[in-house]
């Protein structure tokens, strides 16, 4: 994403800050000291014991041991913590390497070793911002963030995710103590349905709750080409949601998240960054920008060996509109009945 943004002239030197690596002490604002120590030891030793595997979820298929398993997520966490400091006085910061929303305080989950959204939200609290909102567009439910803020009336959580998709949490009925709005959506969820969710749930909930800052997890795995979901969004839906949310807050942190097709991830997040900076996506990519995408590879996937030309020659997806299905409309209507309660709770 950063290479593509630079090639388009959208990332001048003054707009880019290198993420610091969060130190273990900073991570224990959410994660347990035992877990952080286990993560450090696993990276150093290249292996974990059966006891560590069982207790902390390290060394599994979805949380494998590797040589950067502490340093890489600690750098993403450092970027998220820095973003919290940067938006304290107002503004927008994007941290594409962050968004690892499945990690728990004492356990890794779903390729997430540290929960940088939770760490950033807690840091915003330490900086004096109490009322916060977390919006998640990833195809997978944000189970780690949800658990971290269960019962916290000053944290509004909104998640739009595919139903019956791992981790199989985030049912419509899950309220997190009253301020969690979960919208599980069916396969084939399209741009029109996303616009209905945005305008019917996300924006009015933010208006009712009046947070002092918003953290938006902008996972790209809800885009149609992603292999780990069955949703049908274009990257236009992400851009429209980001800009609409930006218009409702003076402080916004945008993170990455899931995304397993390198072309759709790069195109989606570059479009989001560009839109936040007021840049229009070009009709066709040429020169250095096209070369960045043409150089990508997707080992093990047939599409990676012979990607469609549009994956390297365009930035914006074609619109993927469609009908608003009855089950989607009914779930949006159900969540809307809870919006007045958010407003009342705002001043408890």
Structural write-up:
This protein has a six-stranded parallel beta sheet with strand order 1-6-5-2-3-4, with helices on both faces. Mean pLDDT is 96; it is low at 344-348. The chain contains 15 helices and six strands. By secondary structure, it is an alpha/beta fold. Helices cover 41% and strands 10% of the residues. The chain starts with a helix and ends with a helix. It has helices at residues 2-7, 24-27, 33-45, 50-56, 71-87, 116-126, 143-148, 191-209, 235-246, 262-276, 287-294, 302-305, 310-313, 326-336, 339-345; strands at 91-95, 132-136, 155-162, 180-185, 213-217, 251-255. It has one domain: 3-Layer(aba) Sandwich (Arginase, Chain A). The longest helix is centred in the middle third of the chain and has 19 residues, at 191-209. Helix 8 (191-209) packs parallel to helix 14 and helix 8 runs parallel beside helix 15. The chain is globular and about 50 Å long. Helix 7 links the parallel strand 2 (132-136) and strand 3 (155-162).
CATH fold node name = Arginase, Chain A
Low-confidence stretches: 344-348
Strand order of the largest sheet: 1-6-5-2-3-4
Over the alpha carbons, how many angstroms does the gyration radius reach? 19 Å
Summarize the biggest pleated sheet. Answer: 6 strands, parallel
Helix content: 40-55%
Termini separation: 42 Å
**What is the number of beta strands?**
6
């Amino acid at each position: 994403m950063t290479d593509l943004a630079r090639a388009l002239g959208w990332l001048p030197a003054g707009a880019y800050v290198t993420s610091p690596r969060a130190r273990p002490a900073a991570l224990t604002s959410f994660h347990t000291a035992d877990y952080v120590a286990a993560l450090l030891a696993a990276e150093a030793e290249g292996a974990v014991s059966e006891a560590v595997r069982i207790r902390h979820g390290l060394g599994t298929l979805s949380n494998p041991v590797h040589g950067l398993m502490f340093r890489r997520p600690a750098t993403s966490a450092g970027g998220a913590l820095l973003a919290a400091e940067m938006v304290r006085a107002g503004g927008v910061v994007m941290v594409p390497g962050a968004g690892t929303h499945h990690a728990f305080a004492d356990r890794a989950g779903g390729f997430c070793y540290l929960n940088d959204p939770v760490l950033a939200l807690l840091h915003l609290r330490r900086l004096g911002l109490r009322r916060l909102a977390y919006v998640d567009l990833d195809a997978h439910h944000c189970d780690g963030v949800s658990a971290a803020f269960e019962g916290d009336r000053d944290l509004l959580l909104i998640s739009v995710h595919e139903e019956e998709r791992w981790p199989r949490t985030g049912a419509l009925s899950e309220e997190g103590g009253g301020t969690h709005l979960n919208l599980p959506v069916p396969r084939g969820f399209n741009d029109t349905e996303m616009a209905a969710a945005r305008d019917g749930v996300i924006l009015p909930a933010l208006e009712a709750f009046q947070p002092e800052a918003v953290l938006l997890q902008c996972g790209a795995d809800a885009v149609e080409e992603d292999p780990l979901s069955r949703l049908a969004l274009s990257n236009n839906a992400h851009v429209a949601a980001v800009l609409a949310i930006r218009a409702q807050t003076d402080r916004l942190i945008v993170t990455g998240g899931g995304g397993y097709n390198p072309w759709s991830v790069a195109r989606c997040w570059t479009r989001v960054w560009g839109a936040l900076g007021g840049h229009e996506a070009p009709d066709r990519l040429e020169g250095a920008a096209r070369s960045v995408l043409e150089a990508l590879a997707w080992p093990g996937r047939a599409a990676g060996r012979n990607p469609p030309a549009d994956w390297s020659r365009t930035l914006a997806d074609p619109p993927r509109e469609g009908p608003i299905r009855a089950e989607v409309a009914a779930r949006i209507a159900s969540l809307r009945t809870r919006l007045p309660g958010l407003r009342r709770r705002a001043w408890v």
